[in-house]
Design goal:
Layout: E1 3-5, H1 10-17, E2 22-24, H2 25-28, E3 36-41, H3 47-58, E4 65-70, H4 82-88, E5 89-90, H5 92-95, E6 100-105, H6 121-134, E7 135-141, H7 143-153, E8 158-172, E9 186-196, E10 208-214, E11 218-224, E12 229-232, H8 242-252, H9 278-294, H10 301-312
Parallel strand pairs: 1-2, 1-4, 3-4, 3-6, 4-5, 6-7, 7-12
Antiparallel strand pairs: 8-9, 8-10, 10-11, 11-12
């Protein structure tokens, strides 16, 4: 599939070696079609890793996607070189007058902090508010999902007894949702978090529907009925070894983590982890792009805004 991105982005060479079709900006300008504009707000510390994970999954659609990356200007990244951010990322001030068909808000390793204690919280809430009028569908992932629900609806997050880390079975609870098309009744997904959102706290929000949940993970995927808001508390974008690397990191930090569940053979962290979520990951991101973005987003944002304004008068 043609993803339009800067050809010097490190992820480009990685994806091409995986036989994934990536179209650089030079070639894309010769195609006479309107690409879907996707903005990725990358809050993860290892930004290049997350870029590659998300681009790999977005590559499953035949549509042309024009992908841009956003970072929080109010936060200093300690794990990604400033040259990378300056070359490939924009700040909110640089995009706030633009319109995007889709927005992805990643997770972030800040979930043990109160939302308001996160150093970029004020800037993030500005992005959420802006997205209501400048983005057609927003996909929130893990902490990004918790943050989105809190910013929009004041839904709280709760600390769990221990970190939820592993690959867990989830049930499809709303099989008629376009986002769940092509899914089996059950599917597996990685989760890695210390906090959760409870079903009873969103029960009164009639515009939201529970699409997936599980015994161990609780709420897994939510969406608004118009698919303009999507909340996924798992990490379908994770690579085979992402949980293993997180486990090793936590061990080195002296956190004494438990071995990720349902992940290593016989729970032996010296073995190669099994990859058991590749198909649902591809299906979910394809469904989001197709049903929540492509088939619904306005072709001309300026005309769409003018008609929306006239309807409100």
């Amino acid at each position: 599939m043609p993803i339009k991105i800067e050809k010097s982005l490190p992820a480009v060479e990685i994806l091409r070696k995986e036989n994934i079709f990536v179209m650089d900006s030079d070639r894309a300008i010769h195609q006479d079609i309107r690409p879907m504009k996707i903005l990725i707000l990358n809050l993860m510390p290892q930004k290049i890793v997350t870029e590659t994970q998300l681009l790999r999954l977005l590559a499953n659609t035949p549509l042309q996607l024009e992908v841009e990356f956003l970072h929080m200007a109010s936060h200093e990244s300690k794990n990604t070189h400033s040259d990378h951010l300056e070359q490939f990322y924009k700040t909110f001030d640089q995009v706030k007058y633009d319109y995007f068909d889709g927005l992805i808000v990643t997770g972030a390793p800040v979930e043990n902090l109160p939302f308001e204690a996160v150093d970029y919280w004020e800037e993030l809430t500005q992005v959420f508010e802006w997205s209501k009028t400048h983005v057609y569908s927003t996909l929130h992932i893990c902490w990004g999902a918790q943050a989105g629900l809190y910013a929009r609806y004041k839904v709280q997050k709760y600390s769990m007894d221990r970190k939820l880390s592993g690959v867990y079975c989830q049930e499809v609870t709303h099989p008629t949702s376009p986002l769940m098309r092509g899914f089996d009744d059950q599917f597996r997904s990685p989760h890695s978090r210390y906090t959760e959102v409870k079903a009873e706290d969103i029960a009164h929000l009639e515009q939201l529907e529970i699409l997936s949940q599980g015994n161990e993970v609780g709420l897994a995927i939510l969406a608004s009925k118009d698919l303009r808001e999507v909340y996924s508390f798992g990490h379908l974008e994770y690579d085979r070894d992402t949980l293993a690397k997180e486990y090793e990191r936590d061990c080195l930090a002296g956190k004494h983590p438990h071995v990720p569940e349902n992940y290593f053979k016989q729970d032996d962290p010296t073995t190669r982890p099994a990859l058991s979520w590749n198909l649902p990951a591809a299906q979910f991101f394809t469904n989001w792009i197709n049903y929540a973005v492509y088939q619904e987003t306005p072709y001309d944002w300026e005309t769409y805004e003018e008609s929306a304004l006239s309807a409100s008068l």
